[in-house]
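sry for the spam today, last one i promise. struct tokens for design, 229 residues
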């Protein structure tokens, strides 16, 4: 019930690559059918006064913005990893969000970890990080292993009800199938983090979204894999 003239700014957070200058969504690998260079700012502007600021942002960078206000991060390098309907990151250096000429900095979900993987990503390549750790991949692993682990908490419920936080809850209860999946996920994350650290070397790595619910077993396996580097 706010009069439109009283609205000073509108922000929209969306998965995908943003062209800040043109106010466009360059491409969303989760929804390739949308096409390229979608003029979201233009679409939204029609609903608001001409002088209303329309601010588009990638979801991974948007969720990282609160850390710009944390005094302890003032002179630090931070990597945030956001997982939900995809996997993206935000790289912050001394309270400055890094972006790049094509806004690709932080698109860590499209880092290729396994070129031999058969699933094609929305970006057009195979073996992308976000595909290897997606909920669809996890559900597929559970389906393949259900005969070996008939007593698992994960095989006693419909696949469509499985969530990533749910896998971590089962892992906390020492569920063998859940811990097998967690070991796999930790290897994927360790591989990606090693690659990122070689080019950015952050002081802090912060998980947001689904993987923020990771259990102690994931943490221990992640550090174990990182220690091999």
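last one done:
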């Amino acid at each position: 019930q706010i009069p439109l003239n009283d609205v000073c700014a509108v922000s929209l957070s969306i998965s995908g690559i943003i062209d800040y200058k043109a106010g466009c969504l360059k491409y969303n690998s989760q929804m390739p059918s949308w096409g390229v260079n979608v003029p979201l700012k233009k679409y939204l502007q029609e609903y608001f006064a001409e002088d209303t600021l329309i601010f588009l942002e990638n979801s991974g960078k948007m969720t990282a913005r609160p850390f710009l206000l944390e005094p302890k991060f003032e002179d630090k390098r931070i990597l945030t990893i956001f997982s939900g309907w995809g996997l993206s990151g935000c790289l912050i250096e001394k309270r400055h969000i890094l972006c790049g000429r094509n806004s690709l900095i932080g698109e860590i979900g499209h880092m290729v970890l396994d070129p031999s993987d058969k699933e094609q990503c929305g970006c057009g390549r195979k073996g992308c990080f976000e595909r290897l750790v997606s909920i669809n991949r996890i559900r597929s692993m559970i389906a393949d292993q259900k005969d070996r682990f008939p007593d698992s908490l994960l095989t006693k419920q419909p696949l469509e009800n499985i969530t990533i936080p749910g896998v971590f809850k089962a892992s906390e209860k020492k569920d063998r199938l859940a811990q097998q999946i967690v070991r796999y996920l930790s290897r994927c994350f360790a591989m990606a983090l090693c690659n990122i650290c070689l080019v950015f070397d952050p002081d802090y790595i912060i998980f947001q979204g689904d993987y923020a619910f990771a259990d102690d077993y994931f943490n221990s396996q992640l550090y174990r894999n990182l220690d091999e580097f």
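The mean pLDDT is 94. ok im logging off now
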